[in-house]
Specification:
Length: 527
């Protein structure tokens, strides 16, 4: 690959950023809390109506491709009633527009960074990198953290969409600013369907509901307050569901499918219905489970997706049910963080055509069929805080940058099966560990079977305090991909590394091989 002068300058910028760890960007806790909006000014839970994110419209569709255009801009929105908040939004929306695709059709998304050159209060350059989380994209389209798009630049991402139906999400992954960028709004869903899923006749249309659960803290003027608690995380005192504080959702007396994404920067959840009624998990990160899994609560870390069916048919009109949260240990709690949203049952009429929960969903998922005996290697990864840095096996993303992106934590062979042991020896924090490219099956946690809600294809796993979680996966694809903690503050303070899927017949594509360009140099999006 030939690097232009501009590219070399850009690579230099990353090296500088990586050696000067972004400690100076941390707002001191005391300062920050003095600017915090008092709890008395926050809305009363369940007083704000529920909303759904709008879907993106393709710029064009051909026989086998869909083209989308997403612009990132600073956008003022009303999040708390009566206040204006500056967000960083995909196409003016927080969360961003839902991209909907069908398996077998490639999607090309032009992401353009029209954010300010410098963040007005946090004083950083909001460079971006867009990751489609859950997609087996080629390395150069995977949102590699150091493959940044600076304000005024643009990049076309290509998404293959060959995997089974699933709830994916796209979010910022720009090196050292992922937490800030995602916190300000650069998060959205991407929903892929396939024929197997369609044949199940699951609740669809208005009964298939994206549910982004995030948290935030506000300043007195309504702007977002970004604080780092000893670099351990960003902990909000307001739950935002699809960008609305503790909303109230009117539901009809039938089944709903909720696609629940925890897009909190650091916070993990453990939620249940206020009457402790059971509900069913039908899909995990990588798509449908083999059959509906009955649960009464879910421990749900950042970036995990759980799709659940809740049946409201047995409730009388006017019933109010709350989705309540019991914070897992090592989160920071505030008043009202024990409640997330409310469902209010109405007497409105509805169709019964898709009011279905079939007993069998996807019984033949290849990843769920993997056996320990197939594994050709077992590797251990320890997630630890050492000094001020968050590390994986004692290394950080700075080691990747200083090696010119060559340093890897593992080099699995293409199409081989491996077992990875993800280890958190600390009692002081938890780590949601994400492995790019693959879907994995959780084998066990501290030797015990995975939780009832985790028994499906996954790409993020909750590695709690003192936990050792073993996962098994097959490395289909080639090239270098990231793995990291999905507490985005840990990730930015460098708990991130990469592995290289080695194909002896052909080198993998270079994750830094297709860089962003100034907007004026972009050709037409649609050929
Ligand atoms: Cu959702 Cu590498 O991230
Ligand atoms: Cu990912
Ligand atoms: Cu972590």
């Amino acid at each position: 690959m030939k690097l232009s002068r501009r590219d070399l300058l850009k690579a230099g910028a990353f090296a500088g950023a990586a050696t000067a760890l972004p400690l100076q960007r941390m707002v001191s806790g005391i300062d920050a809390f003095s600017r915090r909006m008092p709890a008395s000014k926050l809305p009363t839970p369940y007083s704000v109506p529920f909303a759904r994110p709008k879907s993106a419209t393709p710029v064009m569709s051909t026989a086998n491709k869909d083209y989308f255009r997403i612009d990132m801009r600073a956008t003022q929105l009303e999040i708390l009633p009566g206040y204006k908040t500056v967000t960083y939004a995909y196409n003016g929306q927080v969360p961003g527009p839902v991209i909907r695709v069908n398996q077998g059709r490639e999607a090309i998304v032009r992401h353009t960074n029209m954010l300010p050159k410098v963040h007005d209060r946090l004083a950083y350059e909001p460079w971006t990198s867009v990751h489609l989380h859950g997609s087996a994209s080629l390395p150069q389209y995977d949102g590699y953290a150091s493959d940044i798009t600076r304000p005024g630049e643009s990049k076309d991402y290509r998404y293959p969409n060959f995997q089974p139906a699933r709830t994916l999400w796209y979010h910022d992954h720009g090196v050292h600013h992922t937490a800030q960028n995602a916190y300000q709004g650069l998060v959205a869903m991407y929903i892929m369907s396939d024929p197997l899923e369609q044949a199940l006749n699951l609740p669809s249309g208005e009964y298939d509901v994206p549910l982004h659960i995030g948290d935030a803290m506000f300043e007195r003027d309504g702007n977002l307050l970004f604080t780092l608690d000893d670099a351990s995380g960003m902990w909000g005192d307001v739950f935002l569901v699809n960008g609305r504080p503790w909303p109230n959702m009117q539901v009809k007396r039938r089944k709903y499918r909720f696609r629940v994404l925890n897009n909190c920067i650091s916070r993990s959840l453990d939620y249940r219905l206020s009457n402790n009624a059971p509900f069913h998990v039908i899909a995990t990160d990588g798509g449908l489970t083999s059959e509906p899994l009955e649960v009464t609560h879910i421990r749900h870390a950042g970036a995990e997706r759980y799709e659940v069916v809740i049946d409201f048919s047995n409730y009388t009109v006017g019933t109010k049910l709350q989705l309540l949260n019991t914070s897992p240990q090592n989160n920071r709690d505030y008043p009202n963080m024990d409640r997330i949203m409310q469902f209010e049952v109405t007497g409105e009429s509805f169709t019964t055509l898709d009011n279905n929960l079939p007993p069998v969903l996807n019984p033949s998922s290849p990843v769920m069929a993997l056996q320990e005996s197939q594994a050709v290697a077992t590797r251990a990864f320890r997630f630890r805080r050492i000094g001020g840095a968050w590390t994986i096996n004692g290394t950080t993303w700075a080691d990747v940058v200083s090696s010119n992106y060559q340093f890897t934590l593992a080099d699995p062979l293409k199409d081989s099966v491996e077992i990875w042991s993800l280890e958190n020896p600390s009692g002081g924090w938890f780590h949601p560990v994400h492995i790019h490219l693959v879907d994995f099956q959780i084998l066990d946690r501290n030797g015990a079977p995975p939780q009832p809600w985790e028994r499906g294809p996954k790409d993020v796993v909750y590695v709690g305090e003192g936990e050792i979680v073993r996962v098994i996966m097959k490395f289909e694809g080639r090239g270098r991909y990231m793995m990291h903690c999905h507490n985005l503050v840990h990730e930015d303070h460098d708990m991130m590394g990469q592995f290289n899927v080695v194909d002896p017949a052909q080198a993998g594509d270079d994750p830094m091989g297709t860089l962003a360009k100034p907007i004026a140099q972009m050709g037409p999006l649609v050929p």
